[in-house]
Write a structure and sequence with these properties.
mainly alpha, four-stranded mixed beta sheet
Amino acid sequence: MVNFRSAQQANRRKTVFLLVGMGALSWLVAFAALTYFGGTTAAIVPLAVGFALFSVWGSYYSADKLVMLMTGAKIIEESDNPKLFALVQEMTLASGLPMPKVAVVADKAPNAFATGRNADHAVIAFTTGILDIMDRDELQGVIAHELAHVANRDTLVSAVAATTAGAIAILSDMLIRMMWFGGGKRDSNSNSNSNPIALALSLAVLILAPLAALLLKAAISRRREALADATAVDFTRNPTGLRRALEALAADTTVVKRRSNAVAHIWIESPLDTSSTSKLFETHPPLAQRIAALRAMEGI
């Protein structure tokens, strides 16, 4: 358990660092726009930042509803699956969390996710496929992993990261278009007009910022998955169950029908094909890496 606790602390520190980096990147985009445009033209920047903040606030309240809609998850009652509810209740007692709503996605591909703005509004969802193939210990590990996302406020962190990255991309694109079509209309009194190096750097920031934001968002998601694995072991005191669950997911080649970039990061296993994608853009650590970490905790 010592190694896993160290992993928890390290992942929390790195996630905070990445979120600070996302905020710094937002500031850098605004600063680049102010440097380039100067004067009254740059009044668009605070308006855009305000829009971004409004988007983040909106995602805080509506993200769970959108996720449920996009994944096709349906809330079920205890009478629909008493054994599943009993396992969830067992894990909520171990974690100290309130009982979440439970949902099922009619899909043969094994997978699961958690959503909700906080512990009092949490939903954990399971595909019919994962309920069919996993035994009690494996499913307990999956439930603990998803409850760990709730306990660690991962749904909120992910929503903020995704919304901020989207806002940076929109703002950068808008400002680049303004540069391209109206670059000659900058404030004639602006000092930036006499500083071509500052103008070039500002343009470079606006071009590269969306890519940097995407990389930060992916890195945040990967850290949250690693932290959720570590927290799940704290809840169950049994790394074997989660390890076997991840091995079962690795062995299965089916993917959920409703998959998209917008919600790929919420699943316990990414439903997207990342074989031709740079590891920098992956939202999950490789399953083999997560399994190896769990094996190390078992002493295997």
